[in-house]
Amino acid sequence: MKKKLFGLIAFLSILILAACGGSSEKSDSSNAGSENDGNDIQELTIKFSHVVAENTPKHQGALAMKEYIEKESDGKIKVEIYPNSSLFGDQDEYQNLVANNVQFIAPDLSKFVGQNPQFNVTSLPFAFPSDDEAIAFWDGEKGQEILRSLTDDGVLGLYMWPNGGKHMTNAKKPIEKPEDLKGMKFRTQGGQVQEAIYSALGAGSESIPFGELYTALDQGVVDGQDNTLSNIESKKFDEVQKYMTIMNHNRVDYAVFTNTKFWDSLNEPTKEIIEAGVEKGTEKARSEAKALNDAALETIKERGNVKITELTPEQIEVFKEALQPIYDQFEDEIGADVYEAIRAVSE
Ligand code: LMR
């Protein structure tokens, strides 16, 4: 009798819930992607995965984004950030974004040259003197076109977040001139331009995921690598390298990518908050990048593990000349119009 009564109550409860249209719009990353035309902020859990440490512009940008979105949505939207390749690494974060297993990633632009060779822009030698010119390029018409070129994969590029200029570290000898690289092997983030740079300087190269780089340097799989100061410092690459040359020969900059199906599933009030959150993150990453790199240089100096070479303008000129032919080599793939847009912001 009791059992029957419980059964009846349960059955009636289901009927009532169904008649009310369900109890909430709650969804998480696994079911985000269904249409929602309501006027209430959707309850969501958004995942943001990245490969770098916490003391970096990318993580600081992601934190600012999280803080804004969670506050403005009264906690209805949760943002989970996974740094240090703890959820996905370079090898699998893009596929998982495409599969909507993660809703935001912010990978180094140079890791997408397979999808569109124009992402090589960020690796072009000495193209952007500082963050400002790089930001101006990616906010401009050509930059936006490239950022938004992955829609066939279901991926939308929203903004460029800068990290900064790259500098070379290695375990063999100080680098002051192109010949110093001869015979060494360097790790690249990826991409044909980075390979061409090392080959023009007489060195070999191999693309290695960021999460495996410390071990690869430690075990001598490669002799050196190039990166921003905040990445070198926060990942302690100076522990397993002996020399560092301040070069600023190309850059690490990020594309904030989201999944279009997820994006299109957001109703207006929800999208407004997330969009504004991404803007807050963009402001934070852009305003912190240089300061974090400057502070990282001081820390690396204090640790004293690497001998630091600061090239003179004349020494930089020699590298520029050696690498100039790369522009001709990649003009067809990257585009004369893109080169023109770089010149317009950098000269
Ligand atoms: C690297 O792979 O060296 C960097 O692109 C990592 C990052 O995301 O800054």
Automatic annotation (TrEMBL):
Signal peptide interval: 1-18
Keywords attached to this entry: Signal, Transport
GO terms under cellular component: outer membrane-bounded periplasmic space
Entry annotated with the keyword Glycoprotein: no
Source organism superkingdom: Bacteria
GO biological process: transmembrane transport
Keyword Signal applies: yes
Family annotation (NCBIfam families): dctP, TRAP_S1
Family that this chain belongs to: Belongs to the bacterial solute-binding protein 7 family.
The protein's name in its UniProt record: C4-dicarboxylate ABC transporter
Organism in which the protein naturally occurs: Pueribacillus theae
